[in-house]
């Protein structure tokens, strides 16, 4: 529940403050919205909707899978977009490039997640025994994956998320290398272009923020992989559950708990109260 509240507050802040609604902020809002969707589903599942006899059990499981995959996809988009923006910042058709990229990002995030979820659904309702073994198998023992180390969770959750996290890590390395080159150029030539220096620090702040989001997603995922490989069941109860409870709180701290944002919110609400 704290994660749901904090994610909703994060989304509210980004909607409220105009300067956060830039292109990068738009991608962050998509990511936070998908995270909020997945945590709302997880909370409902824990409270009352893990009844395998319910007609909503199987659709609910696939909707939860969809929301989890879209969260990973949008974090992947944020990582890629920072790299692309830093690497090709001087593009002549920059506005066109942003529009095209945004459309491609939507196709990637929603399209991939829909295709993957539909594939799992077709596998589960297939008459072929092999496909049934590889399916997510929602609605038999649980409305979610019945085993943490089964074929279904491996194919439809762990493998795609592992690929995206690996790509994110590679993008971080490439972005860090490019940042290092830009910084050395600014120092070497004693660059006096204030706008270029300012943009460098803006992109640097976004890069650091994205690394933090990556760690928030990556650390629980790493524990999940260790649990699956070594079958250490205490990892789930002693590590993963406490981390997941504060997942949304951590995202709120990373994105919103900043002096400038807090002061801007205070000023905005003070002006709103005066107008009334």
From TrEMBL:
It is a multi-pass membrane protein. One of its GO terms (biological process) is cell surface receptor signaling pathway. Keywords: Membrane, Transmembrane, Transmembrane helix. The chain crosses the membrane at residues 60-84, 105-123, 154-177, 213-236. One of its GO terms (cellular component) is plasma membrane. GO terms for molecular function: G protein-coupled peptide receptor activity. The keyword Hydrolase does not apply. Residues 1-259 form the G-protein coupled receptors family 2 profile domain. It is found in: Membrane. This is G-protein coupled receptors family 2 profile 2 domain-containing protein. It comes from Acyrthosiphon pisum.
């Amino acid at each position: 529940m704290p994660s749901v509240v904090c994610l909703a507050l994060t989304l509210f802040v980004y909607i409220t403050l105009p300067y956060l609604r830039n292109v990068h902020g738009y991608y962050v809002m998509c990511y936070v919205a998908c995270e909020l969707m997945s945590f709302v589903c997880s909370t409902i599942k824990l409270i009352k909707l893990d009844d395998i006899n319910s007609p909503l059990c199987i659709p609910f499981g696939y909707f939860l899978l969809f929301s989890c995959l879209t969260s990973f996809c949008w974090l992947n988009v944020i990582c890629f977009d920072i790299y692309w923006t830093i690497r090709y910042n001087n593009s002549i058709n920059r506005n066109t490039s942003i529009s095209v990229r945004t459309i491609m990002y939507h196709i990637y995030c929603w399209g991939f997640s829909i295709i993957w979820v539909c594939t799992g659904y077709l596998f589960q309702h297939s008459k072929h025994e092999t496909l049934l073994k590889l399916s997510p198998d929602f609605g038999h023992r649980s409305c979610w994956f019945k085993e943490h180390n089964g074929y279904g969770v491996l194919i439809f959750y762990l493998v795609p998320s592992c690929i995206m996290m690996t790509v994110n890590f590679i993008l971080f390395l490439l972005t860090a290398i490019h940042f290092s080159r830009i910084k050395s150029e600014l120092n070497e030539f004693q660059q006096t272009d204030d706008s270029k220096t300012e943009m460098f620090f803006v992109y640097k702040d976004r890069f650091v923020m994205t690394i933090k989001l990556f760690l928030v997603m990556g650390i629980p995922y790493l524990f999940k992989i260790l649990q699956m490989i070594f079958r250490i069941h205490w990892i789930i109860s002693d590590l993963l559950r406490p981390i997941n409870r504060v997942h949304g709180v951590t995202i709120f701290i990373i994105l919103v708990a900043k002096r400038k944002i807090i002061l801007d919110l205070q000023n905005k609400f003070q002006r709103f109260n005066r107008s009334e």
